[in-house]
């Protein structure tokens, strides 16, 4: 029969015209005529109470009714409502009195041809509504009117006393599933048991589906396993129920049990299980399902293939995913998108972009998800040019106003620092959402755009009625961190409290970070302590906050608390803690953290290695720093090279520092500004004037680096150390940068060494202009006057300090013994072992006298007699700390002493002799550098 509806209508009308009505006596009582089709267009009148009876005893009439039923079924098969109505009209005009089967056929036709209203009106005038009619109407109501209406119909059916069959129960259970009515499902379940339909496969599957969709997966599971026969429909319903609740592990366990039975697996079952494997990252189980798909011949099915690609992608096996993709004939856009996303998730960004280009060359039109993924891959590739070409393609295809695509473009441009292009992409979007605003804000908190503009954007977002989410607040808090705007950050904190998201761990961590980096640690600590779940990120933020604000001891206390609470540190935690050890020169704690990093398998991380080298160099263990640096030969980044170069320089090994720089150049690593600070500092500490000028001039000429204030400070220090004060003044005059306080301090220090009072006075004036309360300016100038014996000028400087309320930082030294730090000041008698310390100093004094040591009274900047000056030199703080170390530490251990001021020249000479007399390695770190004393000589070669 033709598929043309009009032709079908003609055929059915012709067939109905050939039907002959039976000649039979007029029945008594007269049957009710069939409903006029025109009345279906308006609400039907109530049917009279007469009961319709089929004319008995005529075979022709029965055959006619049967033919009408067959014709109606053909209308159902073709989906032709028009032809069905024509038959209805023919039956009415010929005054055919239908039997119950023809009534049911008309109800079924109207329901399945999409005219539920006609079916209902016809149903209302049926003389006797049997279970078949009820079944058709209930099933149709679920499709057209929703589940609730189906439940009402079923209730009416039971009130009329019609006993349901399996088909009715299946239809009602679909209605229960559609409207998620668990209570009604339980009532139907009781009806099923009462009527003995529990063994019916369709009814059982309906129960499993209804319970699963209502969230009662436990009941669904019981029904499923109580069924004598199970099919893939009931299995799918049960598995989908557990999957919708997020219980993927139970799905896999059920699937393992079911595969041992004889239930036939469908592609929908395998798809559900594969999705769960992907969510769990269960590669092993996913491969088993893949094997089953191959076994039953479903591997190349489009739906299942997409699920396999997605599963392998989420499990991190993009090669297997691509192997499946390649074997599929004519993959659609969904499958292409799945494979591109797979490469993107597997960080194979170039392959994702290449696949996208292949897709376009094959004429497959991408969708918004494809384009959003490709833009993300372009971002991760760091290829702005390719990203712009993708943007051009998006404009050509008209996807620029799709939110997911536009948001990806905004994020890409903002991440590349192309703030203007990002703003244009944002403005081109008609329907911005919160994600769009968040993407726009992301470009203003890392220095790509003006951070102040970021604040304006946030205010504009609020004014336009958008409600910020936690990601918005995190971006704005990072913006406050970049600006150091703690006041604005406090206002954002208020908004966070009003929106009741202060308990979110990511928002709380961002608050801690903002307050810590804005030097408001009490607020940071208060928020941190209120966190219910402090994870490793929160701990790391508070630890790094303490470290960056020179509160190393507090940082290490937090690290110990973190360890007691059982939180495993990550590489950033270790790096921050090692930096804390560097700041307080706590070698023992640093070694313990190094040990923990090794146990955690993080000692070879680039951040940890750099922090380890920095810690060991700043704690005086240059040999250990060299060991860590040597082990990292295959993973060195520029930060690690810079740390080692600066470390050698700080310890006075200028030649080693320059050799390391040459090694860096030989490896093809491009140096940066920090590298040359270390190189120039090494030249300064070693007095390498020619090398210093060569490297300084190469900054701009060879490497294209604009010299910073730090580079100029190194050159001023170099010229000052070699005593070339004339060239130093000329260099200061010709500088393109205004000298800062550090440079004038260096000048003042050089004047102290070389006795240039005139330049010292000018440098001191410059320093005090910058900061009238800088104690070092007064002290250095006072010491210069004292060296020249100008005690009246010394007194004048001291009076000026008192008048301005400037206090001199007291000189002190400290030494770490068995994990405890012991602090000493000059002529200190407060230590518990002061008697032993002074006794040891007397022993050393006698040995030094025998070695020919004569104290240099010129280093005692006091207006007293020479004998008193020499006596005072014997009890400087570094000597007290050194004596305590000689008493307490084993002979094979080096002794490390730290001092907050510059070591005086006399102590330097004395400690050189002590290292030879005691046959010990002595390490002294003053405010400027490390001194390694061995066998009567110092690493600085007396040039410091």
What's the quick description here?
The chain is mainly α and 944 residues long. The chain is built from 49 helices and six strands. The chain has a six-stranded mixed beta sheet with strand order 2-1-3-4-5-6, covered by helices on one side.
Biggest sheet descriptor: 6 strands, mixed
- Estimate percent helicity: 55-70%
Mean pLDDT across all residues, rounded?
A: 81
Beta-strand portion reads: under 5%
Q: Rough shape?
A: elongated
* Helix count, DSSP H or I runs of 4 or more residues: 49
Structural class, from helix and strand content? mainly alpha
Rg, Cα atoms, Å = 44 Å
What does it look like?
The protein has 944 residues and is mostly helical. Helices cover 66% and strands 3% of the residues. The protein contains 49 helices and 6 strands. It has a 6-stranded mixed beta sheet, with helices on one face. A hairpin with a 2-residue loop joins strand 5 and strand 6. Helix 8 runs antiparallel to helix 9, helix 28 packs antiparallel against helix 29 and helix 32 runs parallel beside helix 34.
